[in-house]
């Protein structure tokens, strides 16, 4: 489908405008993708976003979302045209105050042609007015906008923004956010960061949320529904805001018994990863039935299914570990997913040890012994798993096993220095697996190319490290399953 909206008579005006000086010959359209080999159409070229201001209104009974996005960005090339990634219906676009023409193309591209071309290095303000029913929109045959009986949730990976705001949808272009959403009185709107204020008029309540640290687009979240919002402060001084659907039924107790421990777990993780990087922490549990949780920045998305068997602090540890590994330091490209998932899973192992339920080494031994050499588990290389397998079990479990191998190779002092130093080294930025290896080599003073290649990049089961082989293969008996294993296995559907 290719839809071009252009006012009658505007064509003539537009062609006059196109009588550009000869110096404009260097102006060209920004690329329709940012250049990620896993997802070639995701993100866009030609500009860099610094801030999203979203002023929205949502009606839960009809799933209608309407409003205005104001995007602050800077051009990175001489730009004649540029794209945003978006699915809802656009009625108006302005660039630096002037009406722009626009069209849709591809699966999720909004092509914007400004009235005059934009030189490289120009600050731009893009205003997009839009509306639509997100649940009726799809790209590549799917939707990640999740309707609930009382509203909806936007929380998915690697894509969820297309259904609720226009963006440069790739983690390498991080920005700050103001998200202001009006909902009917009695409904709550939950998003990232700090709740700056609420106000009510004409039967609607507006929630104003602010994320004042850089945030990847897939980590922006929006939940609309009937929520009970709780607030507290951790011993370490981190403000915590959690929200629970009022309709969790039998799962309500277990959800609160897990998520209300956010402050305690943030403080505990700070001991390994350094100071908590954001202004608030927290999570929300809407009335969804999806099978995963997601590390949406400062406000983790949990499915109530995570709590169907009782309290599950392990999933809370996983998603909060991502606040450092994934959110503060974000991946450069989606192939770098190991830095997110390997370390979030390893944090679960450290928590297991903390809870007296099995040490990280025991869990590593168990994973190693659980998968024989001919198991397909070993054919997925966590260091570059491919887009089809990037959220498969090996990225998590083999990924954490690689981290234990690194720990055993460089020793605890260097290992824990790396663990804590990495978020500081790339604070609020982006980094790759190669960057991580270089950093671990710098801190430890050891060449780690063989270790990384064996544990992260080869599609085969690594030989057991000599120091560990006795305990792993002794009498051919697998290590005893640590008590926590079932609990961790039950959370394999985390993101
Ligand atoms: Zn994860």
Break the fold down into its secondary structure elements and pairings.
Blueprint: E1 4-5, H1 10-17, E2 28-29, E3 47-59, E4 64-75, E5 79-85, E6 89-95, E7 98-99, E8 101-105, E9 109-113, E10 123-132, E11 145-148, E12 151-154, E13 175-184, E14 188-190, E15 194-201, E16 204-215, E17 222-225, E18 227-233, E19 239-245, H2 252-259, H3 262-273, E20 283-285, E21 300-301, H4 313-321, E22 330-331, H5 337-354, H6 360-370, H7 393-425, E23 430-431, H8 433-444, H9 449-457, H10 466-473, H11 485-489
Parallel strand pairs: 2-5, 3-13, 19-20, 20-21, 22-23
Antiparallel strand pairs: 1-8, 3-4, 4-10, 5-9, 6-7, 6-10, 8-9, 11-12, 12-17, 13-16, 14-17, 15-16, 18-19
Bound molecules: zinc ion (ZN).
Residues 295, 318, 322, 340-341, 344, 494-495 line the site of zinc ion (ZN).
Main sheet? 8 strands, mixed
Give the low-confidence spans.
1-22, 469-480, 483-491
Assembly context of the chains: single chain
- Measured distance between first and last alpha carbons: 32 Å
Give the strand tally: 23
If you compute it from the alpha carbons, what radius of gyration comes out, rounded to the nearest whole angstrom? 24 Å
Superfamily at the CATH H level of one domain? tricorn interacting facor f3 domain
């Amino acid at each position: 489908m290719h839809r071009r909206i252009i006012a009658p008579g505007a064509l003539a005006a537009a062609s006059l405008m196109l009588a550009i000086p000869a110096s404009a010959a260097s102006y060209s359209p920004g690329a329709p993708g940012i250049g990620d080999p896993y997802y070639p159409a995701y993100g866009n070229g030609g500009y860099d976003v610094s801030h999203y201001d979203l002023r929205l209104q949502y009606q839960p009974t009809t799933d209608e979302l309407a409003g205005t996005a104001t995007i602050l960005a800077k051009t990175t090339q001489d730009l004649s045209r540029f794209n945003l990634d978006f699915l809802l219906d656009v009625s108006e676009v302005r660039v630096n105050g002037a009406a722009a023409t626009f069209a849709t193309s591809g699966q999720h591209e909004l092509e914007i042609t400004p009235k005059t071309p934009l030189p490289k290095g120009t600050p731009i303000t893009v205003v997009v007015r839009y509306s639509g029913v997100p649940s009726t929109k799809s790209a590549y045959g799917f939707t990640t906008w999740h309707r609930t009986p009382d509203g909806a949730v936007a929380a998915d990976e690697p894509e969820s923004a297309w259904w609720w705001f226009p963006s440069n949808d790739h983690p390498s272009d991080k920005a700050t956010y103001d998200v202001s959403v009006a909902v009917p009185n009695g409904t709550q709107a939950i998003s990232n960061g700090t709740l700056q204020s609420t106000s009510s008029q004409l039967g609607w309540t507006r929630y104003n949320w602010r994320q004042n640290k850089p945030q990847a687009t897939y980590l922006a979240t929006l939940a609309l529904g009937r929520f009970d919002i709780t607030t507290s402060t951790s011993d370490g001084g981190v403000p915590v805001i959690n929200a629970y659907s009022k309709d969790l039924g039998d799962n309500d107790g277990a959800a609160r018994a897990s998520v209300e421990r956010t402050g305690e777990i943030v403080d505990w993780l700070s001991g390994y990863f350094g100071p908590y990087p954001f202004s608030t922490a927290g999570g929300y549990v809407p009335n969804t039935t999806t099978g995963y949780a997601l590390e949406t920045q400062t406000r983790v998305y949990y499915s109530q299914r995570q709590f169907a068997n009782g309290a599950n602090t392990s999933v809370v540890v996983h998603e909060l570990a991502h606040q450092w590994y994934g959110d503060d330091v974000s991946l450069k490209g989606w192939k770098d997913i190991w830095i997110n998932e390997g370390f979030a899973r390893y944090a679960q192992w450290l928590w297991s040890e903390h809870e007296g339920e099995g040490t990280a080494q025991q869990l590593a031994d168990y994973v190693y012994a659980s998968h024989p050499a001919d198991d397909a588990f070993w054919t997925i290389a966590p260091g570059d798993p491919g887009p089809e397998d990037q959220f498969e079990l090996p990225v998590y479990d083999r990924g954490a096993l690689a981290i234990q191998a690194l720990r055993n190779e460089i020793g605890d002092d260097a290992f824990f220095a790396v663990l804590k130093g990495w978020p500081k080294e790339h604070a609020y930025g982006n980094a790759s697996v190669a960057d991580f290896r270089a950093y671990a080599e710098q801190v430890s003073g050891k060449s780690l190319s063989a270790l990384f290649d064996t544990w992260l990049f080869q599609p085969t089961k690594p030989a057991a490290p000599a120091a560990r082989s006795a305990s792993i293969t002794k009498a051919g008996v697998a290590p005893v399953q640590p008590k926590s294993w079932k609990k961790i296995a039950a959370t394999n559907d985390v993101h």
